[in-house]
Amino acid sequence: MKIGAFTRLLALGLALALAPLMNGDGAKADGAPSQGVRIKDVTSLKGMRDNQLVGYGLVIGLPGSGDTMRNSPFTEQSLRSMLDRMGVNVQGNTLRARNVAAVVVTAELPPFIGRGSRIDVGVSSLGDARSLMGGTLVVTPLMGADGLIYAVAQGPVAVSGFEARGDAELVSQGVPTAGRVPNGALIERELPDQFRDMQNLVLDLRNPDFRTAVRIADAINRHSQARYGARTAVERDFRSVFLRPPQGVTPMRYLAEIGDLVVAPDSPARVVVDERTGTVVIGQNVQISTVAVTHGNISVRITERPIASQPEPFSFGDTVILPDTTVETEETGGQLAILGGADLETLLRGLNQIGLKPMGIIAILQAIKTAGALQADLVVQ
Description:
Elements: H1 3-18, E1 37-38, H2 39-42, E2 43-45, E3 51-60, H3 73-85, E4 100-109, E5 118-125, E6 136-143, E7 149-156, E8 162-165, E9 170-173, E10 178-187, E11 201-205, H4 210-228, E12 233-237, E13 240-243, H5 251-259, E14 262-263, E15 270-274, E16 279-282, E17 287-304, E18 307-309, E19 320-322, E20 325-341, H6 344-354, H7 358-371, E21 374-375, E22 377-380
Parallel strand pairs: 15-22
Antiparallel strand pairs: 1-14, 2-11, 3-4, 3-6, 4-5, 5-10, 6-7, 7-10, 8-9, 11-13, 12-13, 15-16, 17-20, 17-21, 18-19
């Protein structure tokens, strides 16, 4: 092989090897490399957001698992009102139906959605119904914060949880008193279209960060400079990027072009722990200064063995129960290990060497944060 060809092959190999370590500007990224994502996946257009809808309705057709009219008087009132509107006179009669449940219906109205489109709705029981499985939601108007009706919901309720009970045992899984109606709401009113009148566009970052905002602005400017010969983006703060579409380009086409540009988002060093479930999530940039850690568990076992003391024959005494309590303690663990690493892999290797369970890892991380050796934000949920 000739020297020139060998040199070109070597340069190509080095470029391929170093490509994952380069950021969008062609320089080596600080910290561990991040995988590139599209701008549309990490930002949202300012002013274009979802709107909350809510309504009150009835679910019918339940197999005896609905509200009791005595404990849920609002269900009886709603049922009477619905029957009156349908021409059925039930005034003066006592209703004892158990196949009806009062529910609150919620939904999110997306931006740019048109009249006649459908959205999913959530249904949650308001009374003492045991389950909504098998029920059907009756026509329910959904209102916005301004009091106007934007959609109407109706359809069969899909419930993932179940409940089965007998005289002495109850078995349940999930939440049987909440469900969804897929494509159950029909849009009747559209939101005002403000997109056409926008001269300046602002992209809001889903996870605000200074470096991510700068990388997004740089990626957009490189694209617009090469295509239109002008810079069209500037980072306004750590959570937003200001855009000005080029002359002769509609905002819709401009956003479609820059939405597919790839950037490497950055994130702060953060550790999130959930003490209820024992979940620990450690970010990529988390570092721990070198510390020595030991962790031991103390278990206490208390056993009750009551003893019956009976009197002697013909002594006219009473039989009494005497307590007999045994307390045992046991301490395990206590292995000393040194933690400290410059990356996530080294940190996880050190925690695994101690052989901790999730609750033990949570306690260790909290103690390391108190000692000032955890160089990250600790979020406890």
